[in-house]
Each structure stands twice: as structure tokens, then as C-alpha cells.
Amino acid sequence: MPARILMVDDDQSMCEACGSALRQHGFQVDWHVSPQAALEALRNGDFEAVLTDLNMPGMDGIELCRQIVANRPDVPVVVITAFGNLNTAVGAMRAGAYDFVTKPVEMELLALTLNRAVQHHELQEQIRLIGGATAGTDRFERLLGASEPMRILYDQLARIADTDASVLILGESGTGKELVAAALHSRSRRGDAPFVAVNCAAVPEALLESELFGHEQGAFTGAQKKRTGLILQANGGTLLLDEIAEVPPSLQPKLLRALESRLLRPVGSDREVPFDVRFLASTNRDLDSRVEDGLFREDLYFRLNVIQIDVPPLRARGMDILVLARHFLEESAARSKKELLGLSEAVAEKLLGYDWPGNVRELRNAIDRAVALARYSTLAVEDLPEKIRVHTSSQMSLGGSDPTELLSMDEVERRYVTHVMKAVQGNKTLAARTLGYNRKTLYRKLARYRLD
Question: How large a percentage of the chain has pLDDT more than 90?
């Protein structure tokens, strides 16, 4: 839908000419020659911005601006002033105007100014909707967000939660894979039984077998007493094998046998113990590539990957960024005993414009830092980490309209493959899926463009 602009000018010919020009720039324009009529229209209709002249009989543009700011602060006002009349422009800004343009009006500049005003309005509306009411936002257990990728994720989780099928949870670091696993457990019939998570990358290789399967007293140096492993600790419930790609090849056959037979043998024991556990596994690594490289057993991969869940990165979740930021702000402010009303518009713009390579974990840390440094009732840009403050979004350029600047299809493909590989942090499985290639084609492209 085109943005709807309310124009106010006592000169009807100016309204007609300017309105016609703005329509050519994609705006929907309603105009009035009376400020009172414009205020009535604003009370009865929805507009994204107001464009008003300053010098009008009865009510000038500054007074009109004051009334709009008082009654409809969500609608930005752009004023038109005579060239060089800075005092009047300053007066309009003090009255709450969003911006001003000078006569004679340059339509390209006016269109750009109105586009910024419309974006300002839309961002304010999003902040207002988010407000403090994150409790009413769509969620699944502790997962929070209402974006389309999250709705798809919720639907998948709801359908598979109450089965015993093994699930492989894939996603970048910091996306919340353990929260997904916990949500699956909570919604299952095992929800009242233990949920146990082990980070396979954090346990030394020599101890991981004992950690999972347990050991008998004296099984090895330092085993002074019998220990129950994590698999049996999760008996009746769910075990999450986080960072499953880091399980050493020497342990993979024993883990596979336990998955298939539902029997385990503690280290140093001569008997097998039955167990009843649902296995979930998660990783941010390209597990397909590790299988192809011989670093991960294919049969174990298939046993774990009965159902695959892909957790979306934060940069793909749109306005969920602000929903989560508000949620983290409320939690952090409560812990710090600070009274904070929310996010400023400038902070919201910075958060939405950042790429979030560290995903939700990075966002939480950024908000915790901002709350600790906050000096005002709302978070300010200066409270954010420097890399977020100075970040500028990068776009992949494919060339201009000049025939001498246009790119060959080969160069377009090289740039786009490079862009996708960077965006998925080298995950070849996700890159192939995004590009619509099979894995052999992707490897061939990476070799051709020397990107591997």
C-alpha cells in the first residue's frame, strides 16, 4: 500500500501541483486548504505523515504542528518554509516538526524527506505495538517471537513434540538450540521426567564416555567411586547431545549401539543396563560435510537425524529483534533495579540495522550492557556496544544501469555464491539449500570460484 500523506496549504494550485508530483513518487496524497479541515481529516483517517506550509491565515504551520504533536504524536510533520528563513524552521522543529524543506521545493528532496518521515512513523508504530506487552506475543514455551520463520518453527515443534523420534537441531551459534530442545521436552509426554543436556565440546575426549555412560569404581585412575552417567540420569526423559559434531570417532560406535539397542555398558562394567531416553542432538557445524570427510559416522548421523529442525538466525526474524530486546530489557532492568521505559527510536533503528552474527545470545549481551550503562529513562544509542553503533548494513551490488557497468552472469553468480557462503558462515548444507544446488554442484562452484 502506498504511504498516505496529508498535505495542508492555503494555495490550492500548490496543493494540486505538489500532490500530483508526489503521486508520481508513489505516495497517496489528500490535501486541504484549511488547517482546521486538515485536523478533522487527521482525526478521522490514518496518515503516515503530514506536509504543511508555514504561512497560512487563521492558523499557521507552527500552531498546526503543535496540535498534531499533542494529539497524534505518532504522525511526523514536515513543514515547508521560505528559503533561508532559519528562524521559522527552528521554531517549527521546536514545535515538534520532524523535518522541513525550503521553497522553491525540489520534488526529489521532498520525496526523500517524506520517505524518511514514513519510515519514522512505521518504526514508532512497531515500538508502540511491542510496548511492554511481550507477554501477549506469540511464543512456544520459552521461545519468543511472532515472525514467519518462528511461526513455522512453532508448528514443527508442536507436531513432533509428543513423539519419541530422535531430532537433530541445526542452527548458528546463539540462536537458541537448547531452548528448542527444552521446548520439545516440555511439550512431550516425558515433560515431568528429567531433561539433561551435555555439551560434547566442553567435556575432554578422555572423559566424555564416562560422562555419558557412567563408570564403575576403579574403572580408571581417579574413579574412586561408582558414577551414574548422564544417559541414565535422563532415564524416562530427554537427553540433549549439544555440539554432537564434536563427539570423537572412537566414541561414536558405542553411542550408535546405545541408540539402537537401548542398552548401555558403563566404563569398567561387564553388564549392560537398559534405559528409556529420547535423544535430541544439536550443532552449528555442517554435519553432512563431516560425514563426507569421514569425521562422523553416517549410520549414527541417520540415527540421530530422524527429524531435522532448523532454527532461524536472528537476522531473518525481522521485528522479533525488538520483541526480544524489550523482553531482555525488562529482565535486566528488574535484576538491576532500574526503572527503564523501553527503547528509543534511534536504538531500535540500530538494532534492526545490525546483522547479529552472534544471534540471540549477542542481543541479550548487548541489552544487558546497555541497561548497565543507561542514564536515561530509555536506552540511548551511546549505551550500545560500539560495533552496533557504527555498523552500516552492507548490500550486494550487481552493477548500475550503465551498459559498461553491467555484470556477466558468471560474475553475478560468483558474487552471489560468495554472499550466501558468508551469510551462512560456511555451512555448505545450508548454502546448497539456499542456492538451490545439490552438494556436488555447490562444491564445483566453490572450486571454480576458488571459494572453498
Answer: 51
